[in-house]
# Entry
Amino acid sequence: MKKITMTRRIVQVFCLILLVYGGYIFKEWKQSPETEQSLFPALKAPAGSISITKLEKGSILWPSGATPVIENYPPSLVCRFNPKGGMFKACILHFFSENLTWQTQLKYLLPYITLFILLCFLLGRMWCGWVCPIGTTGDFLTFLRRKMNIPVKRFPQNFRINLSFTGYGLMAIALTISTIIGMPNFARYQCYWFLPYCQICPARLICPLFGLIKPNWKDFSTSITTTFTILAWIVLGLFIAAFYFGRRVWCHMCPVGLINSWFNKGAGVELHKKSIKCIKCGYCADACPMGLTKMYEMDKDGIYNQNSCIMCLRCVEVCPRKGCLSVKFFGKGIKIKDFFRGKNAKKIS
Amino acid sequence: MKKLLLFLIPILYGLAYGGEQIQIEFEYPSITGDFYVAGTVFFPPAAAPDLKKILVMDKDTREEIPSKIVVQDNWPDGSVLSAEIVFPANSQKKGKYIIFYGDDVERKKSFVEAAVLPTVSFIVPGAGTTVENMDVSVGQINVRVDRSTNIRYWWYILPVFFLILLTVLRTLRTIRMQKL
Amino acid sequence: MQKKFLDRYGRTVLKGFTSTRSIKSNANSELLEYSSRSKNSSMKKFYQASEDFETGKFLYPEKPVVGYFCSLVPEELILACNLHPVRLCCEENFWTQAGEEIIPGDVCPVVKSICGKFYNQMYDRFDLVVVPGSCDPKTKLAELLSPLKEVYFLDPGRDCEYLKNADIWEEKYTKFFDFLKERFHCSSGRKHLLSACKKTNARTEIFRKIYQFRTRNPEAINSFDYYIMIYASFFMDIEIWNNLAENVYREALETREICKNPKILLAGTPVIFPNFKIIDVIEQAGLSLAADIQCTTFGRFYNPVEIDEDTDSGIIRALSLKDIAGSICPCLLNLEKLVNLIVDAVSQYNLDGVIYYNLRLCQVFDIQTAVIRQALKEKDIPFISIKTDLGNQDTGQLKTRLEAFREMIESHRK
Ligand code: SF4
Ligand code: SF4
Ligand code: SF4
# Structure
């Protein structure tokens, strides 16, 4: 394994531990009375909200033993279904659905939106390649497949584009439902339709497992919960299949990733190509887990950031020609060595 | 600048969060002597498994204050959703109080309202309540809270617009570069 | 392959053929001369091995030996089956004349000399020969050799566009791998492939070091040493070669000479022992061969295998990318890549000029010349194309041309 992938794996595992078990590790700190009120005040359901009070015991949305998490919203998914001790409730889709239903005023949401946009602007979709616990889980599945010597399934370009349309469709439906049930006339539907996407998201079934908590696998009490349960199973099946047979196919339709992807082309992390060095060996296109080919096809010098790129930097790493593909931060090269050595290092060398 | 950003990002990414405590605020009434402070607090699901896991604390001395807590509503899993909290205070000793809850918390002191004393209601600042103006009449004391015009909620709009503008400009540049 | 047909007629050809083996080629004396010019004592082993190989005394390891042509055949697959790969490529006047008896006419001299060697039982130890369909003479060569040896014909196609062809390459390489496994009764898998790739990657690493070093200091490992090393890598065991090359590199690091001659880049037909006429002339003309872009050196060694999917098919795919998509073989569709490589190398290593070497009767190299000349003219890089054959008659004339070229470079520098 080469340097970038090595770093990435370490970061992924570290983030997984921090995000999923962080609450256990920093328990003392979290509960220390010295801590002042957070910069980001906790958003709460309005008093007496049906979405909360009328939810039945043991409903899909409340796996038993789950402790609330701190309600901050880094770019995306650390799910509400994290086991006890999770640090953030950070999934941006959850954030929007929840607050649309609660009809929280914009001014209370602004701090979170600012944080979200700032991080997206600086790092683009780096979240997906480096932090997301679901992505890490998927990468682990891919690792298992490789160990079992099953060849990767390469999906055609069209299929992947359709996947992202599916993702946008799901997102639109979820947000519309959330908005509708937030209106007073429809409030009685909240007990079943609250957070519609979360109810079918694979993370709902996977995240609790990290804390050895039993997720609510099934709920056949009414026709709506039955539908949601079955849909969740189907999506989970797709999720596992997508990661097991392909690489990161899921990430083409993950709504959270799609929201992040809007920032990719303008992000601070830029991927540059110097095309005179390129020998068209195709290593980069072959290694890209998202199946992107722009860096291979591009015949001009310039930035090849694309919307569905997860910034895993695998293409930069595998390119056999030094200086052909490179990663820059706002147009400046990133050299960790220089960073640690201080400014003088540049003058000497 | 680059260095600063490089330090800031992980911090923002990983560390921006607060503790599991609730600050309470109330105005000291003009009367002298003891009075009660009361109010309703909402808890996140499963945070406070039962009554015993909630207590009131003096912010400066860290001493537990005897309190009476009545559960009003429960979460589906049995944990406390909202509770009414009453505790005594004294206008001579102007303390600040916080509510502290969680698994590790154990309430030891409780009290019963022995005498009939004036009651002040407290509020929980920072909660995303949708109530903009609140008029609460408790005895002779009237507390008025209005936070709708507080600038601290609105200044965020500037960086948001700035960042979105930058993103759009840079995206256009990238697209132009890729088309050429 | 239609074995029966070829057997019948091939053997007939063979019958009329008079063996030339009793006459000795003069490769040995040339080797002696080159080794005396070497400043690097670690090179001795390479010279020794080359001499052994030329005279047929080379000790192959106790494994089946598989000969192959061209960089388009994946060496790693052969290594993974625990076979000994030997890259065949012969450019020698002596054997060309021997081959003339079998294939007379205006045919590629390399094919002629290979035939000459095969028909004189120089390669008796081989169990299998793999011939790629890279160019037309190679394709026919597969048929000419089939009466003598078992031949596997591997045709990867002439298009090296990754997006279109990756699956085809993977399929063809997999078939080849399956054939090898069946033919030599081994059950090689992922582990063997990985270890084979590790070996070749180690070789790539050493080669890159030497390549970069020579661009700065071409005298410490002179071009004869360099090409003899490359030649030795054709037949030597890869691990032994790695160790020896590492020694050479370490020794070269200690000698620091400053190169005053104009540095040039050699592109075009590969230079293979004993056909060292061109580098001999370059040296005599006062030029330093500091870098090269040829399929035996740069094309074969410069790219590592980048394994992304470490499954069987993933590794095979990675190999196909390295050997075909990244190839600079003139038979494939990659002229743009070659021009880019040359321009980039010249600016990156501060070279002064480009010599394009072209073996007579090889059309593909010939056709490219005009385009490369035009592209380099635009970039204002001195360029000369040299077209010659394997004989020694035109040495003097070449020398005069190169001297003129040097003068041109020197005036261009100012
Ligand atoms: S696309 Fe979704 S699942 Fe994939 S890494 Fe990004 S946030 Fe995680
Ligand atoms: S890996 Fe590098 S050299 Fe190869 S095709 Fe991609 S950009 Fe070009
Ligand atoms: S384009 Fe490069 S950085 Fe982006 S997902 Fe593909 S391999 Fe990773």
Q: What stands out?
A: The first strand of chain A starts at residue 269 and ends at 273.
